[in-house]
Amino acid sequence: AAGPRSYTTLRDEAVKLFNSLQQLESERDPVPLMQGVLQTCLDLPPLVDEIYCQLVKQTTEPPAPGGQGDLHYWQLLTCMSCTFLPSPPILRFLRFHLDTESRFPASEMAQYSAFIREALAKTKGRQCVPSLGEILVLMRRQEMVCTVHCPGAPACRVAISSHTTAEEVARELVSRLGLSQSPNLFALYEQSRRWEQPVAKATLLADVLTRFE
Questions:
Q1: Residue 2 pLDDT > 70, yes or no?
Q2: Whether residue 83 is found in the same domain as residue 36
């Protein structure tokens, strides 16, 4: 994994993020750029509201509604909504902006708006920014598939969202494996070549996947 980033002043970093957003419009592979913006916001929380405001501005009256550049902004807004909650005033402003059905009925932008509204109702904050794989599925408004290896049973593939906790996945696996009546306790573990540790119940599985990336 990359080492910790070094930052300058908040003002300078805000300017850099603004330049990144401008670049996003024409970027052929926007995923690394999106992850960089998200990482800066995670490291420098005061910039979260700034980026939300910039994205609202960029998606309010785009020169080409539904074009590649416009959708890249909606996709980053989707990733932001699954990672950070803005402050209450910005959240109210954002919810008003997400009423795109009247402006662009039955459009892809309206579908992103609906997805973002649902995400904002569930997002509590992340320990890690979305992995590259998670960003790709969020850009398509889809779920990720997580493979869990179970002792004495085949590996299980579980669909998860950015908001799925370890407890929810453990509960689903217990049900799938017919162990609901078992007196044993069940938990998820994450394992690398050097260590193995239990995953806390409230941990988001998406954060675990990012750590492994």
A1: no
A2: yes
